[in-house]
Amino acid sequence: MSLAADSPVHSSSSDDFAALLDAELDIISDASADIQEVAEEEENIDVEEGDYDLKFDRAKRRKVEPYENVADLPSSSSQGSSPNKDECQHPGVYAGMCMKCGIKMDDESGVAFGYIHKNLRLANDEISRLREKDLKKLLHHKKLYLVLDLDHTLLNSTRLVDLTVEEGHLIDQRGALPDTLKRDLFRLGSMQMMTKLRPFVHTFLKSASSMFEMYIYTMGERPYALEMAKLLDPGDVYFNSRIIAQGDCTQRHQKGLDIVLGQESAVLILDDTEAVWKKHKDNLILMERYHFFASSSKHFGFNCKSLSELRSDESESDGALATVLRVLLRIHSLFFDPGRDDNLLDRDVRQALRTVREEVLMGCKVVFSRVFPTNFQAEQHHLWKIAMQLGATCSMELDSSVTHVISLDAGTDKSRWAVQEKKFLVHPRWIEASNYLWKRQPEENFPVASTVALLDYSLK
């Protein structure tokens, strides 16, 4: 049962619709529930189509009859003393009416949750109530929330007209493609697009669903989001109505957890773009972008052949999704650690995320050499910030406790000191790789050239 398919005209009263919203949370949080049981629940709340008008009219009269004239009716803008317990607090609005008492309301009241039900808006108090209720239920099942971006995180799409000559084999020689590629490559004729699912995505979603209630959240349009959801979740097991698209956002060019029915303290986000989560960076796990098609690589400024042109792909076992799944398992384990003596409701998954992230470069003390632009405040550079987040200590000065010198040029004084003192001398990409792979990378894989590198690297 989904609110996207059920509206007040299918309920026995407006009170039933309020209850239906609660029922939706119960049902979509347990996507593996038996379909027959869900159908039986629907039968219990459904009424004969001809009975609805009469019952809904009676419900409205029960609410209205105590008032002698229109001026006495409560409204969303009423002022005065605090309402008594019998007065409707208007938890939400559907099609211009309070979904509980049925009176006419301002269509702009509350926050829009159109992805759950068209024309549905919920008041802040009701959002808080639903979040608290759902969190308790999820924690009981040892689950948290996971918000997933689509493009470059779970998949990569391109327009058919943007395929290069070297990508022609994806269409002309489809029969000769490896089975793993054929399984995850889709030509969407109605949208004139081709989509490639990221390796390991099916295993990732199946494993993650045992630990998280999952949302899709994309800056793409809703028709595109729904098509991608069908590819990722053809059995409608993982997401149900929890698919948020660009039109659902409350702020232009930004994603926000204000339209996610989950407590921020229990939400993790996987996305390849940090800039769209300005208010929720502490919840974010930044993903390495998946560029399968040439148009994607070109859009982000890469002047090399794409995976599709090379007839290659990410590793199933060591790729980005396999890596982040191990991170999620670790975070989940820390959050639900039975050895902790604090209240489960008081825990914050963001703290668990920080703890796991800080383990990556813990014990490392780094100094940067010729990495930052002249007169640039080092503490504000993204590499300095990443190193700190990964648990490293950053310093401006050399001393015996320094373990790594991060440099673009092996000829600088600090670089030569590192070699002389037998410290690690590594390229800045060592930090970036450790960040994306959530593991300290072998220093020998990131040597520093003896010539001055291009200055534009430090300006990225």
Automatic annotation (TrEMBL):
The keyword Cytoplasm does not apply. Its EC number is 3.1.3.16. It is found in: Nucleus. GO terms for cellular component: nucleus. It catalyses: O-phospho-L-seryl-[protein] + H2O = L-seryl-[protein] + phosphate; O-phospho-L-threonyl-[protein] + H2O = L-threonyl-[protein] + phosphate. Residues 356-448 form the BRCT domain. SMART domains: BRCT, CPDc. One of its GO terms (biological process) is response to salt stress. Interacts with RAP74. This is RNA polymerase II C-terminal domain phosphatase-like. It comes from Dorcoceras hygrometricum.
